[in-house]
Predict the structure.
Amino acid sequence: MAKQFPSLTPALSKFIAKQQMFFVATAMAEGKVNMSPKGGDSFRVISPTKVAWLNHTGSGNESATHVQHDTRMTIMFCAFEGAPMILRLYGQASALHQGDPRWSEYIDLFPESVASRQVFVVDLDLVQTSCGMQVPLFDYVDQRDALAKWSDKQGKQGIEQYWRSKNQVSFDGHASNILALSGLSNEEEA
Protein backbone atom coordinates (compact mmCIF):
# COMPACT_ATOMS: atom_id res chain seq x y z
CA MET A 1 0.00 0.00 0.00
CA ALA A 2 1.21 3.48 -0.86
CA LYS A 3 1.98 5.86 1.98
CA GLN A 4 2.38 9.60 1.63
CA PHE A 5 4.48 11.95 3.73
CA PRO A 6 4.95 15.74 3.68
CA SER A 7 8.74 15.29 3.96
CA LEU A 8 11.52 12.74 4.17
CA THR A 9 11.75 10.74 7.39
CA PRO A 10 15.15 9.72 8.81
CA ALA A 11 14.48 6.13 7.65
CA LEU A 12 13.74 7.27 4.09
CA SER A 13 16.87 9.45 4.02
CA LYS A 14 18.89 6.42 5.15
CA PHE A 15 17.28 4.34 2.36
CA ILE A 16 18.29 7.00 -0.20
CA ALA A 17 21.90 7.01 1.04
CA LYS A 18 22.19 3.28 0.32
CA GLN A 19 20.91 3.46 -3.28
CA GLN A 20 23.27 3.22 -6.25
CA MET A 21 20.89 4.72 -8.81
CA PHE A 22 17.77 6.82 -9.15
CA PHE A 23 15.47 8.00 -11.92
CA VAL A 24 14.43 11.58 -12.76
CA ALA A 25 11.29 12.57 -14.70
CA THR A 26 10.40 16.00 -16.09
CA ALA A 27 7.97 17.36 -18.66
CA MET A 28 6.73 20.59 -20.15
CA ALA A 29 3.05 21.31 -20.76
CA GLU A 30 3.41 19.77 -24.23
CA GLY A 31 5.97 17.45 -25.74
CA LYS A 32 7.66 14.33 -24.51
CA VAL A 33 8.07 13.28 -20.89
CA ASN A 34 11.74 12.69 -20.14
CA MET A 35 12.94 10.08 -17.66
CA SER A 36 16.62 9.47 -17.05
CA PRO A 37 18.55 7.01 -14.88
CA LYS A 38 21.28 8.54 -12.71
CA GLY A 39 24.13 6.94 -10.80
CA GLY A 40 27.42 7.72 -9.16
CA ASP A 41 27.83 9.83 -6.06
CA SER A 42 25.37 12.43 -7.33
CA PHE A 43 22.48 12.74 -4.83
CA ARG A 44 22.23 14.61 -1.53
CA VAL A 45 19.47 15.05 1.03
CA ILE A 46 19.78 18.68 2.12
CA SER A 47 16.86 18.67 4.57
CA PRO A 48 13.62 16.71 5.02
CA THR A 49 12.06 18.93 2.33
CA LYS A 50 15.01 19.64 0.03
CA VAL A 51 17.28 17.44 -2.08
CA ALA A 52 19.95 18.15 -4.67
CA TRP A 53 21.48 16.09 -7.43
CA LEU A 54 24.39 16.66 -9.78
CA ASN A 55 23.70 16.36 -13.48
CA HIS A 56 26.72 15.40 -15.55
CA THR A 57 27.23 16.20 -19.22
CA GLY A 58 25.34 13.78 -21.43
CA SER A 59 23.85 13.40 -24.86
CA GLY A 60 20.69 15.37 -24.03
CA ASN A 61 19.85 18.27 -21.77
CA GLU A 62 16.13 17.65 -21.32
CA SER A 63 15.72 18.05 -17.56
CA ALA A 64 17.34 21.48 -17.51
CA THR A 65 15.31 22.61 -20.51
CA HIS A 66 12.06 21.34 -19.02
CA VAL A 67 12.42 23.02 -15.62
CA GLN A 68 12.84 26.41 -17.30
CA HIS A 69 9.22 26.01 -18.43
CA ASP A 70 7.69 23.78 -15.74
CA THR A 71 9.49 23.17 -12.46
CA ARG A 72 7.76 19.85 -11.67
CA MET A 73 10.18 17.00 -11.10
CA THR A 74 9.71 13.44 -9.87
CA ILE A 75 12.63 11.42 -8.53
CA MET A 76 12.26 7.68 -8.02
CA PHE A 77 14.36 5.19 -6.08
CA CYS A 78 13.77 1.41 -6.12
CA ALA A 79 15.02 -1.20 -3.69
CA PHE A 80 16.89 -3.75 -5.82
CA GLU A 81 18.01 -5.69 -2.74
CA GLY A 82 16.46 -6.40 0.64
CA ALA A 83 12.86 -5.50 1.41
CA PRO A 84 10.86 -4.23 -1.58
CA MET A 85 10.09 -0.52 -1.79
CA ILE A 86 9.65 2.26 -4.32
CA LEU A 87 10.26 5.81 -3.12
CA ARG A 88 9.05 8.78 -5.17
CA LEU A 89 9.94 12.39 -4.40
CA TYR A 90 7.67 15.01 -5.96
CA GLY A 91 8.68 18.64 -6.01
CA GLN A 92 9.61 21.86 -7.70
CA ALA A 93 13.10 21.97 -9.17
CA SER A 94 15.53 24.66 -10.16
CA ALA A 95 18.61 24.02 -12.28
CA LEU A 96 21.75 25.75 -11.11
CA HIS A 97 24.33 26.30 -13.83
CA GLN A 98 27.92 27.41 -13.38
CA GLY A 99 26.88 31.04 -13.91
CA ASP A 100 24.30 30.90 -11.10
CA PRO A 101 25.29 32.68 -7.85
CA ARG A 102 24.09 29.63 -5.87
CA TRP A 103 26.34 27.22 -7.86
CA SER A 104 29.19 27.33 -5.33
CA GLU A 105 26.74 26.69 -2.46
CA TYR A 106 25.86 23.27 -3.92
CA ILE A 107 28.64 22.05 -6.24
CA ASP A 108 31.02 21.44 -3.33
CA LEU A 109 28.58 18.82 -1.97
CA PHE A 110 29.64 16.49 -4.80
CA PRO A 111 32.93 14.99 -6.01
CA GLU A 112 34.75 17.24 -8.44
CA SER A 113 34.13 16.42 -12.10
CA VAL A 114 34.86 18.28 -15.31
CA ALA A 115 31.54 16.84 -16.57
CA SER A 116 29.46 18.75 -13.95
CA ARG A 117 26.72 20.47 -15.93
CA GLN A 118 23.94 21.48 -13.53
CA VAL A 119 22.95 20.97 -9.91
CA PHE A 120 19.23 20.47 -9.50
CA VAL A 121 17.76 21.65 -6.21
CA VAL A 122 14.31 20.21 -5.54
CA ASP A 123 11.91 21.53 -2.92
CA LEU A 124 9.75 18.56 -2.03
CA ASP A 125 5.98 18.87 -1.74
CA LEU A 126 5.17 15.14 -1.48
CA VAL A 127 7.06 11.97 -0.58
CA GLN A 128 5.45 8.62 -1.39
CA THR A 129 6.43 5.03 -0.77
CA SER A 130 4.84 2.02 -2.42
CA CYS A 131 5.40 -1.72 -2.20
CA GLY A 132 7.69 -2.44 -5.16
CA MET A 133 7.01 -6.15 -4.85
CA GLN A 134 7.43 -6.71 -8.59
CA VAL A 135 10.76 -4.87 -8.83
CA PRO A 136 13.40 -7.56 -9.45
CA LEU A 137 16.36 -8.24 -7.21
CA PHE A 138 19.73 -7.23 -8.65
CA ASP A 139 23.27 -7.59 -7.39
CA TYR A 140 25.23 -4.35 -7.47
CA VAL A 141 28.65 -4.73 -9.10
CA ASP A 142 30.08 -1.23 -9.46
CA GLN A 143 29.55 2.23 -10.91
CA ARG A 144 30.64 2.66 -14.53
CA ASP A 145 33.68 4.85 -15.14
CA ALA A 146 33.10 5.51 -18.86
CA LEU A 147 31.73 9.05 -18.38
CA ALA A 148 34.59 10.04 -16.07
CA LYS A 149 37.20 8.73 -18.53
CA TRP A 150 35.49 10.41 -21.50
CA SER A 151 35.04 13.76 -19.76
CA ASP A 152 38.58 13.80 -18.35
CA LYS A 153 39.87 13.18 -21.89
CA GLN A 154 37.73 16.07 -23.21
CA GLY A 155 38.84 18.53 -20.54
CA LYS A 156 36.96 21.71 -19.68
CA GLN A 157 37.16 23.20 -23.19
CA GLY A 158 36.08 19.93 -24.80
CA ILE A 159 33.08 19.66 -22.47
CA GLU A 160 32.07 23.24 -23.23
CA GLN A 161 32.36 22.55 -26.95
CA TYR A 162 30.17 19.46 -26.47
CA TRP A 163 27.56 21.69 -24.80
CA ARG A 164 27.71 24.01 -27.83
CA SER A 165 27.23 21.20 -30.33
CA LYS A 166 24.94 18.76 -28.46
CA ASN A 167 23.22 20.40 -25.46
CA GLN A 168 21.66 23.66 -26.72
CA VAL A 169 18.32 22.31 -27.99
CA SER A 170 15.99 19.71 -26.46
CA PHE A 171 14.62 16.88 -28.57
CA ASP A 172 11.34 18.83 -28.78
CA GLY A 173 13.22 21.84 -30.21
CA HIS A 174 13.33 24.08 -27.12
CA ALA A 175 16.42 26.11 -26.21
CA SER A 176 18.28 24.87 -23.14
CA ASN A 177 20.12 28.21 -22.66
CA ILE A 178 23.04 26.22 -21.23
CA LEU A 179 25.72 28.55 -22.55
CA ALA A 180 24.20 31.80 -21.27
CA LEU A 181 23.22 30.24 -17.93
CA SER A 182 26.74 28.87 -17.53
CA GLY A 183 28.34 32.24 -18.33
CA LEU A 184 29.74 31.08 -21.67
CA SER A 185 29.60 32.63 -25.10
CA ASN A 186 28.16 30.79 -28.08
CA GLU A 187 31.43 31.26 -29.94
CA GLU A 188 34.07 28.57 -29.89
CA GLU A 189 37.23 29.80 -28.21
CA ALA A 190 40.31 29.92 -30.39
About this structure: Strands lie at 3-5, 21-26, 34-39, 43-47, 50-56, 72-78, 86-96, 116-130.
